Amino acid sequence: MRHIADSVQLHNGIKMPWLGLGTYKVKEGNEAEQAVRTALEVGYRSIDTAALYQNEEGVGKAIQDSAVSREEVFVTTKVWNTDQGYDETLRAFEESRSKLGLEYIDLYLIHWPVKEKFKETWRALEKLYQDGWVRAIGVSNFQIHHLEELKESCKIKPMVNQVEFHPLLTQRELLNYCQQEMIQLEAWSPLMRGNQLTHPTLTQLAAKYQKTPAQIILRWDLQHQVITIPKSIHADRIAENADIFDFELSVDDMKQIDAMNQNKRFGQHPDHFQF
């Protein structure tokens, strides 16, 4: 993890960059295009979107217009809850692929574990993977019990689990489980939606390493072997978030950040979401 383009090998052999640009709440059109264009210019090689975000067209256009070749960019999108089910997912995927304007998707995720539907949704993802439309498949917001339930019927194990993960929600048990199962954990809202960046632990470490609190958190993610996808639409912040490959947190400093855990969520709990 010494370069922005460094990647981790998923359990099917596909390489996924450790750092990506998140695009949640990035507006369709110029805002999405500019954010992705800036990220690619800075050196990001992974872009995360979703059907829910309603910005797949802008994301896709920026990728197509970029001087960076398509093969170098790792693109993730997700099937939304109301489109889950076998046939529905296949239709939703084709709609996302069409909006992105891409021949294939690098990673397709189930956005949330909709009860009584996510197994059939996963079966559709397996078909998309086997047919070559996606290079990797995974889930988002799955707890251990969801993954265990999926294991009962799946032919292919998820390659990625994208969850809320940050210093106030370290999810140690889930992280350990996914590492044992060779399911790559990925952090959404790694910067806690801007909350707690003035926490004394983070500000002290920022001063020690001459970095920002955000950079300390993102480096902490990487050293826990967790992919991270901070979101920003500001060019300076996009560049700042990527400037995390020239230092390393000590073991003791990693433990200090771990100790911030409060099991606090800024998003919905995967067992109680209402959408």
Number of domains: 1
| Count of alpha and pi helical runs | 10
**CATH fold category name:** TIM Barrel
- Quick one: CATH superfamily? NADP-dependent oxidoreductase domain
* C-alpha geometry: globular
Number of strand elements: 10
Could you give a short account of the major beta sheet?
Answer: 8 strands, parallel
**CATH class, anyone?**
Alpha Beta
Helix content: 25-40%
Q: What is the mean pLDDT? A: 97
Terminal Cα separation, in Å?
36 Å
Q: In order across it, which strands form the biggest sheet? A: 3-4-5-6-7-8-9-10
> What percentage of amino acids are in beta strands?
15-25%
Second CATH tier, the architecture = Alpha-Beta Barrel
Gyration radius (Cα, Å) is: 18 Å
- Would you list the SSEs in sequence order as H and E? EEEHEHEHEHEHEHEHHEHH
Secondary-structure blueprint of this entry?
Layout: E1 7-9, E2 15-17, E3 21-22, H1 30-42, E4 46-48, H2 56-65, E5 74-79, H3 86-100, E6 105-110, H4 118-130, E7 134-140, H5 144-151, E8 160-164, H6 172-180, E9 184-188, H7 200-209, H8 213-223, E10 227-228, H9 235-242, H10 251-258
Parallel strand pairs: 3-4, 4-5, 5-6, 6-7, 7-8, 8-9, 9-10
Antiparallel strand pairs: 1-2
Helix pairs in contact: 1-2, 1-9, 2-3, 3-4, 7-8
Describe the structure.
With 275 residues, this protein is α/β, with parallel strands linked by helices. The chain has a single domain, classed as TIM Barrel (Alpha-Beta Barrel), CATH 3.20.20. Helix content is 38%, strand content 15%. The protein has ten helices and ten strands. The protein has helices at residues 30-42, 56-65, 86-100, 118-130, 144-151, 172-180, 200-209, 213-223, 235-242, 251-258, and strands at 7-9, 15-17, 21-22, 46-48, 74-79, 105-110, 134-140, 160-164, 184-188, 227-228. The strands form two sheets. Strands 3-4-5-6-7-8-9-10 form an eight-stranded parallel beta sheet. Helix 7 (200-209) packs across helix 8 (213-223). It is globular and about 55 Å long. Keywords: NADP, Oxidoreductase. The active site is at residue 53. Belongs to the aldo/keto reductase family. This is Aldo/keto reductase. The record marks 78 as: Lowers pKa of active site Tyr.
